[in-house]
Amino acid sequence: MKNKLTLLGSLFLMSMSLQAQTDDGIIRLSEFAYPVKRQNLNIPDVNGFKVLKCDFHMHTVFTDGHVWPNVRVQEAWREGLDAISYTEHMEYNPHSADVKVDHNRSHDLAVELAKENNIVLVKGTEVTRQTPPGHFNALFIQDANVLVADNNSNLDQEAIDKAYAQKAFIFWNHPGWKATAIPGSYEWIDFVEKMYQEKKLHGIEVVNGLGFHKKALDWALDRNLTIIGNTDIHNLIAHDYNIEAPGVHRTMTLVMAKDRSASGIREALEAGRTVAWSSNYLFGKEENVRNLVNASISVSPSYHEKTNSKTKVSTKYYEITNNSDLYFELEIKEGKGTKRIVLYPESTQILTAEAGQSKLSYEIVSTYIRSDKHLLFDINLK
Amino acid sequence: MKNKLTLLGSLFLMSMSLQAQTDDGIIRLSEFAYPVKRQNLNIPDVNGFKVLKCDFHMHTVFTDGHVWPNVRVQEAWREGLDAISYTEHMEYNPHSADVKVDHNRSHDLAVELAKENNIVLVKGTEVTRQTPPGHFNALFIQDANVLVADNNSNLDQEAIDKAYAQKAFIFWNHPGWKATAIPGSYEWIDFVEKMYQEKKLHGIEVVNGLGFHKKALDWALDRNLTIIGNTDIHNLIAHDYNIEAPGVHRTMTLVMAKDRSASGIREALEAGRTVAWSSNYLFGKEENVRNLVNASISVSPSYHEKTNSKTKVSTKYYEITNNSDLYFELEIKEGKGTKRIVLYPESTQILTAEAGQSKLSYEIVSTYIRSDKHLLFDINLK
Amino acid sequence: MKNKLTLLGSLFLMSMSLQAQTDDGIIRLSEFAYPVKRQNLNIPDVNGFKVLKCDFHMHTVFTDGHVWPNVRVQEAWREGLDAISYTEHMEYNPHSADVKVDHNRSHDLAVELAKENNIVLVKGTEVTRQTPPGHFNALFIQDANVLVADNNSNLDQEAIDKAYAQKAFIFWNHPGWKATAIPGSYEWIDFVEKMYQEKKLHGIEVVNGLGFHKKALDWALDRNLTIIGNTDIHNLIAHDYNIEAPGVHRTMTLVMAKDRSASGIREALEAGRTVAWSSNYLFGKEENVRNLVNASISVSPSYHEKTNSKTKVSTKYYEITNNSDLYFELEIKEGKGTKRIVLYPESTQILTAEAGQSKLSYEIVSTYIRSDKHLLFDINLK
Amino acid sequence: MKNKLTLLGSLFLMSMSLQAQTDDGIIRLSEFAYPVKRQNLNIPDVNGFKVLKCDFHMHTVFTDGHVWPNVRVQEAWREGLDAISYTEHMEYNPHSADVKVDHNRSHDLAVELAKENNIVLVKGTEVTRQTPPGHFNALFIQDANVLVADNNSNLDQEAIDKAYAQKAFIFWNHPGWKATAIPGSYEWIDFVEKMYQEKKLHGIEVVNGLGFHKKALDWALDRNLTIIGNTDIHNLIAHDYNIEAPGVHRTMTLVMAKDRSASGIREALEAGRTVAWSSNYLFGKEENVRNLVNASISVSPSYHEKTNSKTKVSTKYYEITNNSDLYFELEIKEGKGTKRIVLYPESTQILTAEAGQSKLSYEIVSTYIRSDKHLLFDINLK
After folding, report:
1. I want to staple D203 with a disulfide (CB 3.0 to 4.6 A). Which of A326, B193, D145, D171 is the partner?
2. How high is the ipTM of this complex?
């Protein structure tokens, strides 16, 4: 332990030299400053598509959020997001005594900053009337202000129709939001069915914040609607997510797009090439989740073999690597091999398998391809 | 390494069970949520005074800040602060196209939330005219709106006088702010001297954010003005400070007060019982810094002695403990003992001293009791 | 976001100045060094007793551990422990081809280092024969080597008797260790009953590493045996515990002792004044757990009251503070107040209660005062 | 702040459900366990070569280290290393009273574990006689025991010759080790010159632990010797490096090899394709450092342009991305653009440049291609 008494260096210990002396009589005490950077969120391309990290649901002081619009760009830039959308409430403006109501304003105020930070800004709004039917987000609109419905008897329908007239991509937000407060609200009601029939409903927000709406996933799968995950953030991301902890990220939609642009995102949304990512879980159509998994996980050829001297059973060793910042948990279903594998972001585990097998079959229990179904993942052993 | 392959438990690994299943068809994926708590910031009482953690300089969307007023209470609560003050600019309102100008509004909007969170709210404002003379904060005012000066030739003086008429505690903000941009601005100018002579200047903000204004410290010491440290935060604390890292805190004024109340704070400010704390450094009058150090650091009696078989020199062992969340760095000046000691928050180091001495003298290089002077700290050896 | 482009300071950014230039042609690149310190583990005194943090079960290369004895002192010092005990296996020496077998050696090699670091070293050993009866630790012995039993038919009994003859404090380790592998091994067998009757069994290791042995807790409670929790560490603490994460600590026994000494520890062990602490949980006799909780948690008088304008119900606000580095989770049992409270180390939560009540009753679900019973905790409202 | 009172989820808060209940009467309290994983250390291939992370200098209990050999494989696996070498001292065996002296033993004990963990084990030893000449590591040897020199008058030469006879790759360790204690020891002495002339010296350890030996770098560059960086670890990596902090890694040699094998490493070492990496710094031949930088840093085409309305100056925006886990600091030398850029691991910064330029020239001040020279790095603007 001699080192203990003599070791000089440490972050704190060297702090005197951290003062950036300048010639203006001010000393910058800089070591406490946040390391300002855009953290790459690594996910390999999927079959030639870029995997864009998108959050299509958020609020600012212009409705009931707690931040000025610029903060949302800062957060997106720092956290490695590619695209965001301001979706202020159309009909709920609790700050109106202080803040002038203008449904386009948060987007407009952020346009230049988003450009400087290379963040794709998708113009959007949230149509929020009674629940049911609840709330809908309309993306790729031109003007949010004209969407406000007249005060007549058919508010919801009118707002949806106006958004549709603007060629919006429309999805249903957090379908189970008031599931317990308003019995019957978490149902596939006529209003929604009509939208769906008229091609005015294009996706469902299956994950809102940290809430996974199970029935909503199945509705989306059964009707081939696009699966969406968003934060619906009102507060700071840093106050709602433990964002500095390793592996922690906000809820988002992974969009597999031809290019990193608003039009690329729109094409992918319409084609349904999305996976929602929240906490350690992925939610999506089987094909999309499978493609994402295949792009992220690799298994090495066997690099070692060992025979148990008593049982004469031979065990082969493999490396299974997560090449992405995603997270995977696997549980074996068939074959004799490692029973449970946890693949942290950008990490590797050792996989062992009894020699003589050509395949192991796992369930990736950190994925949902239906509310009660995980992705099956076969590993071919070499 | 057998353990590696068999060990089951880990934060991530158990995450499936982290899902809080509920009966409403929504699964809460909770492990990514921020641990919402008020983190105690431990500093022992100093000679019977409570050490209150205060930030008297901050902004919201009501002037040029990026957050709604409630966020400042959230931040203060989480970070263990006792008191804050909204100090919106009187004359600078870049959001006025969107946000109605009302200089009392951010304070008023936060009053109830502050009460619920037991945060002391000190009503304040920032008088911001030309530089020089620069900016001044006025605390304990009644009405910020009436402070706005008429558009005449003596703007600064009028605003200061109106604040003084409201019995404000007034301090000069970041005196070196435009030191390089406006030559001569970082001087003790006539305007300030007049305020001082008329007892209208009560303190100086020696540390603003992570900038330590060296000359300002000496001005305060020479004139017995109260030493203040503030964030002057416009953005999120979490975006400007690496707040989740161990030992990191925002800049603040430590106020040694008779009780935890607005009046207790005022009495202490007027009596000058403050120390500014920024990064790893403490700035203040020698007496205040010394009292704070004495309350925070303790040295044990010797618990071990060892004699070098060759040199016959005996070494005694002591524990030196930092009982606070502050940080101290000591360098020896006199005596034969450990040359350099770093006392991280709530931690202990071993101190060794040649036997036969009654005292070691250290300089605490992480303190400033003048722009060029650290506190001397004697350790009596037992 | 202007700040992003201009902000200079950050830990990494300043790193050039972190180089401690010296005159010997070697530059120390110090910022990556570990902050070497003893982290205080704060637990307030309990009814005048000091709460000592002790780990009475660990191994080194002298049996089947992976470290030289000095590492165990380093770990204890860094982690804020007060006392440790080397408890090498008497009969299991897998390194004997390389390391000379001497059951006292790891202790002896650490004695001087422990003194320098002010760590109390309790001389111990682990008697490890067949399971059942399993393993027993003997503390406060004089000579481990003489405890090795002759190769006769009554190995276990002889070793226990020899330890008893040395006036050892003896406890049963991890009683459920081979619960599934050897049916019947996790039972209160005759061998143990005989020890107990003859006063040769004084405690039970209720928690071993991260395994809580439920039946063992009840056995200890029913027979008034001392409750022990240990790591039984073989590997590095840093490889088995996520020791750098906030709030993480190794498993240990909290010993409420008259003073910080071997004799103080012995007296407390014999008096049964212990609580085992592992993960977020406390395990112990109700009285001990209650005293520890009372010393750690404080509730403020009400500081705010608010009346709901619709329901006319008044709510009072209180602060509930955890003044220790322990962790508590409370669930309400009686009264109208906050249903669930999580008290992280050194933190505070807001507690609300309907006005007009004098008391709220909580269950502290992070404590076990029996395998199926948590501590009840009443809060008197002021 | 409503969320604060109602938000349920958090790592700690959900901890009750973290208990993995089993049917054997033992509850596993698993959330404190270390997330056991191999952390990928991402560095893109360099001109078709794999960048292997190697540490060729370390000790165990078999000489003066503090750990059993298996711990070094654990550490290497967890930290993403590809190859290690046990280099026990030939002539310094302070544990010999307890541990049988065998210079091959630590390597041999680790062979099977290294195979299972896919860690390349390079057989080595450290020839440690007087200083000067100091210490030398010999890699790729067959038998360390036969290297021990007879007790004659020419110890150093004999040991070196024997290692050379085993076709070892030999490098000089920490040349400035006793620079101040033994004046003249940090010189290019005759003994070393003779080794060099006889082709018995192949590399120099320019960085040892966190010490950068400036003169040694220049010696290696001037004589085309291979540049090496190692930990020379005796204690735990986790006690000497703040290994859990983001961006922290042990000191190592980056070997650009044709394949991940002992022979691949040897070929690269002989060809001099190495860069030493310690703290935030890279040390190596200009060509090697340049290739590594080019593989790691990418600059996007301009994605935005903005014209200052007053000055009419146009500014173009670019993204500069660090695609590796390395760290880079750039300072501008020529051109009008961002003056200082810090590229944290796997992160991106915005680079701005005045329009109309084709190039910016930076110095990468976190690299050393000579003791007084950083790499120059040109950015071609598109």
Report:
1. D171
2. 0.92
